[in-house]
Amino acid sequence: MKNLYYILFILLLTSCRFYSFTGASISPEVNTFSVSFFKNKANTVNASLSNTFTEKLKDYLTSQTNLRQIDQRGDLSFSGEIISYNIKPIAIRANETARKNRLTIKVNISFTNKYDEKLNFNSNFSRFKDFPSTEDLSSVEDIYMEEICDELIEDIFNKSLVNW
After folding, report:
1. Which of 76, 84, 123, 140 has the greatest number of C-beta atoms within 10 Å?
2. pLDDT at 42
3. What is the pLDDT of residue 69?
4. 125 contacts 105 by C-beta, under 8 angstroms
5. For residue 9, pLDDT beyond 80
6. How many angstroms separate the CA atoms of 32 and 52, rounded?
7. CA-CA distance, 146 to 148, in Å (whole number)?
8. Strand partners of residue 128
9. Are the beta carbons of 104 and 128 closer than 8 angstroms?
10. How many CA atoms lie within 13 Å of 61's alpha carbon, on the beta-carbon side?
């Protein structure tokens, strides 16, 4: 009976390459990924957004998969650009002042799976964060930007590797 448990445990460990505990479905022949630098093509430019987004995507893929990162032409390839970064007032009061503001980031992602072209896509992803208009944006902008990037990356991961 003890040997049966060992065999089941070994099978479980070796099968995690195709399906991981993160929900990712990665075929066994996929070994690498690459992430191109995401240029900021938005009208409003946050100086650190491109680097932050690119590095967070790399880190997330590294931590959530067993894939090895390479510079170019990975088995899975992510590229694109930041197409929108804006702050707009919302929840306007009677005296026509904003009670809240909304920071929105929108990215265009091209995903290529070298082994399964049916999974390739070119899509826009958008996320936002609402915050009180009384907050000084310069003191919280980086925090909100990172939170939005995390949400965007989770959406991108889900579409590319979880196939939702």
Report:
1. 76
2. 92
3. 94
4. no
5. no
6. 21
7. 5
8. 104
9. yes
10. 28
Pairwise CA distance, residues 46 & 115, whole Å? 36
68 is written with which tokens?
């090895």
Torsion of CA 9, 13, 19, 21, to 10 degrees: 80
Q: Give the separation between CA 152 and CA 150, rounded to whole angstroms.
A: 6
d(CA 155, CA 107): 11
Query: Is 24 a domain residue?
Result: no
| CATH code for the domain of 134 | 3.30.160.150
For residue 111, give both structure tokens. 């995903």
Q: Is the pLDDT of residue 98 over 90?
A: no
Which residue segment(s) compose the domain that 136 sits in? Answer: 30-162
Check: CB of residue 57 under 8 Å from CB of residue 74.
no
- Tell me the residue type at 25: S
In a domain, 44, yes or no: yes
Which DSSP symbol is given to 162?
Answer: I
Quick one: pLDDT at residue 89? 85
Handedness of CA 69, 114, 24, 31 (dihedral sign): negative
- Reading the block at residue 123, the tokens are 């899509």
- Give the bridge partners for 82, in sequence order: 40, 107
Q: Which residue has the tokens 């197409």?
A: 83
